[in-house]
Amino acid sequence: MSEPELDQKIETALRNSILETNAKNRLKNLLFKRLSDSGWKSKVKKRCTEIIKTKGVNNIKFDQLEDEVLAYGREIIPEDVKIELLQQISDLLDETK
Amino acid sequence: MHAVKLKGRQSKPIKKGAKRKAETPNTVLPLDQSVQNDFPSQSSNVRRVVQSTQSLKPIPPKNGCLHLKEYKENNRYTYLDNYNTIAELSMHWYRIGIPNEGVRDFDGLRRDREIILSPQKCSICSFKGDRLHACLDCVFIGCWHDQRHALKHFHGTTHTFAMDIVRLALFCFKCGDYVYDLDFETAKTLQEVRVAEKESNLKEPCAKRARYVSWQPNSEEAANISKDSTPLPCSGLRGLFNMGATCFMNAILQTFLTNPLIKNYFMTDKHNNKLCGTAGCMCCEIDNLFQEFHSGEKKPYPPCSFLHAMWLSSKELAGYAEQDAHEFYLAAINKMHSDSKESISEPLNRNGQKCECIMHKTFGGVFQSRIKCKVCNDVKTKEEPLVEWQLHLRGSPTPQKKKNGHTKASIENDANEMGDKNTLQLCLERYTAEEQIKDYKCDNCNLNYLEEGVPFNQIPASSEACTRRFSCKKLPPVLTFVVERFSREGKTTSKNEAPFEFPEEINMTKWTSLAQEVLEQGGSLDDLPDFKYNLISVVNHEGKINTGHYTVYCKNRDQWFLFDDHAVKLADIDDVLQSKRKAYLCFYIADTLEYDQL
User: Which family, according to the similarity comment (chain B) (predicted)?
Assistant: First the structure.
C-alpha cells in the first residue's frame, strides 16, 4: 500500500478506536452543552439566518452555507470552552496511547 | 355563527376549499435547513415528549425539486418505499432507547455499554461516525466529509437521491442541496411520531395513549366542513385599548394571551364562559378575551368587562391610578385560582400538594431554603411554593434630586466594582449562593440546650454563623423573573435603571436543588439532565417610579411582537434583548414539557 493510503487507514482506525471507547460522544456532548450555555448556538443560528436572508433562500446551497458558517463559528468560540475541550482531548489521547 | 376555534396547536390544513390565509402573518420563514442539520432534533430524551416552542415549519412543497418532480411523474415510487424502510430502521438504530439502559446523546446515537458505534458504516471506507448517507437507489452507505464517498457514488452511478440516515434529510445530488418534499416530510413525521409513542410506552406503560392516526377529511367531510364553518385568519393578535392608566394590565394580559399553556387551556374549552355562570369570574373574562382575540377582528379591543371584574375582586387595584404590573400579575393569579374549578380548597397547600388550577400549574414552582448549622451539622430544609422569582440588582438606584437641588449620593456603589454586570445568570448565582446567617437558633442545638437544662430564653445564638442556600426544588413550566427595580429606603422609593441582561435561552440545571445536592456529594453537573428554558415575554417599564408606561414584547408562534396598548408591531429578537434598562418581568417557558405538567 502506498504511503497516503496507509495514513488514511491509520487515521480511520484511530478514529474508530476513539469512537469505540465512547469518548468522542462524551466529548461532543460536553462541547454541545458548553456552546449552548454560552450563547454560541444562538449567535450561529442568527448568522445562518442573516446569510440566508442576504443571499436569498433559493440562491444558496447547504454546503456553501455550512462552509461560511463553519468559519464564523470557529472564530467566535469562547476561549474558556476551547481550553476546556482541548484539555479533555489531550487527556483522552494520552489514555489511548 | 360561532367562529371555528382552532384546538390546541395542531391545526390540520384543510385540503379543499380552505380560505385560510398563511399562518404566520407578514413573514415567510426561510427554510432553516442548515440549522436543522447541524443540531438534530431534541427528541432524544425518553421522558420528555412534548416540545413547547415547536417552531412552525412551513408546509413543504409538493415537489422538492425538479428532479423529484420528474421522477414522480414517471410514477416510480420505489424511492418513497426505500425512504420509509430506511427511516424505520434508522429509528431502531438511532432513536429508540431502552429506558435505564441506553441514554441518547445529541446525535441521537445510542450510547449504552456495548452498542456505541453507529451500527452503519460507509460501504467503502468503513467510517462509522456522523453524516452517513444512504443511497435511495441501491444498497450503499457513504460518508460525507473527509472521503466524500457518498458524492463519489453519485458520480459513479448517477443515483440521484440519498438520505442522511440519522436526520432523515433528503439530498438531491443533481441540485447539490437538501430538498424538502411533502410526501417525504410526511413520511418522516410519521416515523418520528411512532418513535415518540414507543418511547413513551416504554417509559410509562401505565399511561395509555391512543395511537396517533393521521386524519384527512374525505370529500363528504370536507364539503361539510367548508359549508358549515368559516375559517378565519387566526393570528391571535390584537391590541388592547388603554382604559385610563391600564397599561400595566394590558401588558400582563398580553403575556397571558400568548402563553402557550394558558392558550391551550382556554382554547380546548376547559373553562367555558357560557357554561360557568359564576358572576365576576375572571377565568370567564379571560376566556372571553381569547375569543375576542381569535375572532379575526383586527381593531384593538377595549377590555371593559375584564376591568370591571378586576376592580370588583381586588379593591387595591381599582381606580384609575397607575398600578404595578407585578402586583397585578399576583392578583390575577390569585383570582383565577379561586375562580378555577380545578383548584384545591386552600390556596397552595404548603405540604407540597399540587394545585391543579391552570395558573398554578403554569407558573407555580417550589423553592427550597436549606439551612446548615455549623455546630451540630443539622440540615433543615423548608419548601415554599412561589409563582415568581425575584431578583436583586446590584447597582445604585438612579440619583434622586433633593429639594435644594443636590443629587442624593448613590447608595451602595456595588456596580462600580469591576465587571459586576447584572445578567440573569449572575443574579441567579447570587440568589442561590451560600450566605451566612448570624443569630440563628438551630432547633437541634436548642433541643440539646434544653436537655441540659438551659431555659429557652437563655439559649445563646450560635456564635458560628450558619449557612443558608436557596434553590429551586421544582421548576415551573413557565418561569417568571421579577427584576427588583423599585426599592424603598425610608420614605423615598426609587427606581433602579441598571441594565439587566437576559439571554434568549437558559439552562436552569445549576440552580435546582438537585444540582446542589449533587455538588455537595462531589458529583458532576454534567451528568444531570438539562432544564432548558426559552424566552417568551418581556414586560418593560419606562419612566419614573410614580408615573410610567408599560410595554411588552411577546413571542407569538416564533415571531416577536411589541404590544404597546393598542399598537401591535413586529419586533426582532435583537430589540427584545436590547431592552436591558427597561426589562421588569421576564417570562421563560420550558423547552420540553412532561405530560403531568400540561
Answer: Belongs to the peptidase C19 family.
B524-562 pLDDT, tens digit each: 777 777 788 999 999 999 888 778 899 999 998 888 999
pLDDT tens, B512-526? 888 888 888 887 777
Lookup result for grid cell 387595584: B317
Q: What is the mean pLDDT of chain B?
A: 74
- Any A CB within 8 A of B128 CB: yes
Long-range contact pairs involving B508-512 (C-beta distance under 8 Å, separation at least 24): B508/B472, B508/B475, B508/B479, B508/B532, B508/B533, B510/B428, B510/B432, B511/B428, B511/B429, B511/B431, B511/B432, B511/B471, B511/B472, B512/B471, B512/B472, B512/B473, B512/B475
| pTM (whole model) above 0.80 | no
Chain segment B465-518, per-residue pLDDT in tens: 688 889 888 889 999 999 988 877 767 778 888 888 888 888 888 888 888 888
First to last CA, chain B: 31
Q: Where are the domains of chain A?
A: 3-95
Q: Please tell me the distance from the alpha carbon of residue B397 to that of residue B411, in angstroms, as a whole number.
A: 7
Interface ipTM? 0.71
Please state the domain extents for chain B: 33-203, 247-339
Q: Does residue A97 sit at the B interface (CB-CB below 8 Å)?
A: no
Cβ of A48 within 8 Å of Cβ of B34? The answer is yes
Superfamily for the B33-203 domain: Zinc/RING finger domain, C3HC4 (zinc finger) (3.30.40.10)
Block residue for cell numbers 448568522: A47
Q: Please compute the mean of the pLDDT values over residues B279-294 and round it to a whole number.
A: 89
Q: Could you say which residues from 568 to 587 on chain B have a Cβ atom under 8 Å away from some Cβ of chain A?
A: 573
Return the closest-CA partner of residue B414 out of B427, B424, B402, B401: B427
Q: Which among A15, A25, A53 has the least Cβ separation from residue B30?
A: A53
